[in-house]
């Protein structure tokens, strides 16, 4: 009776290769989709700003409340993804060479890195709709921008303690800025579909 052991290895290799291919494709597609969404949101933000100048104070208050709600949602998803698939597995040693499940953990961390960056950029755009929140988040944009390429670094297994610490540090600063502006952020772990979809 022939052994099924080599077949299992082949199946595992094919599945992992597909996961890496999907994550690479998703990450490159995310950037274009995110840029398009950011442009659309910026255009609608400009239209809302123009409308707010002639609108009643109630409409302006609703616009600010909506901006805070969106900020909280996006920042919460970013924080949840970063903690669940980057910080927590890193501290547990899942990214170390020879660790059981390392490849899968790295693929998820790569997806989570790209997802976190995209959600934080969206949260930054959302914050512009509320003057207090915008002022609190503005100093954090360079820190958020520094996360841009860390997703691919994580996926390749090249991330260091400092890289993972950067995710944790930026998330904590965004959460602090939200709290100071009256928009407290709580971690919300995204679904696998949200994570792979950006």
* Main beta sheet strand tally, sense and closure: none
User: What is the number of E strands?
Assistant: 0
Number of helices: 8
Round the mean pLDDT to the nearest integer and report it. Answer: 78
Order of helices and strands: HHHHHHHH
Question: Care to describe what's here?
Answer:
The chain has helices at residues 5-54, 57-91, 102-127, 131-137, 141-145, 150-156, 161-180, 192-197. It is mainly alpha-helical and 198 residues long. The N and C termini lie far apart (46 Å). Mean pLDDT is 78; it is low at 20-56.
Please write out the topology:
Elements: H1 5-54, H2 57-91, H3 102-127, H4 131-137, H5 141-145, H6 150-156, H7 161-180, H8 192-197
Helix pairs in contact: 1-3, 2-3, 2-7, 3-6
Keywords:
single chain; 198 residues; mainly alpha; 8 helices
In short:
The chain is built from eight helices and no strands. By secondary structure, it is mainly α.
